[in-house]
Amino acid sequence: MTEQIQRAWERVQQYVARIPPPGPRSVGCAKCCAIFASTGVIFLCVIGNLIKTQPLYVLGIDSPPRAANNVFAAAWIYVAIVAISIGILTYDKMNEQQRSPLRGRHRGGHPEYGSITYKSDF
């Protein structure tokens, strides 16, 4: 049994090693997801407490304890999304020093947007 676990763990490590590091798009997505998921956690916790304490205010629920547990389970999924987003943002921040400060930027520190340039020698 331990050999199977060891082989499975090695396969997981090989799979994780093939995952590319997050790029600029994933950093922007992580910011957006962290904001929306954190508000989702707050909303779901409020709704879960409402169902748990005052189930008469929410219509159409047959089993309030079960519904409250499902709402709290959904809130935990959102907590996981917030944690993953913060992990991506932290990873990007830690590797920011390794990147060139001028990568993706032109002279003067202004970004390049398609055909618009910010060259100072016009």
Distance between the termini: 71 Å
How big is the Rg?
Answer: 23 Å
* Total number of strands: 0
The assigned structural class equals: mainly alpha
Mean pLDDT: 81
Binned strand content: under 5%
Secondary-structure element series: HHH
- The unreliable regions are none
Helix content: 55-70%
Structural write-up:
The protein has helices at 2-18, 24-53, 64-95. With 122 residues, it is mostly helical. Helix 2 (24-53) runs antiparallel to helix 3 (64-95). The longest helix has 32 residues, at 64-95. The chain is flat, with a radius of gyration of 23 Å. The N and C termini lie far apart (71 Å). The mean pLDDT is 81.
Q: What's the short story on this structure?
A:
By secondary structure, the chain is mostly helical.
List keywords for this structure.
122 residues, mainly alpha, 65% helix
Task: Give the secondary structure arrangement, pairings included.
Layout: H1 2-18, H2 24-53, H3 64-95
Helix pairs in contact: 2-3
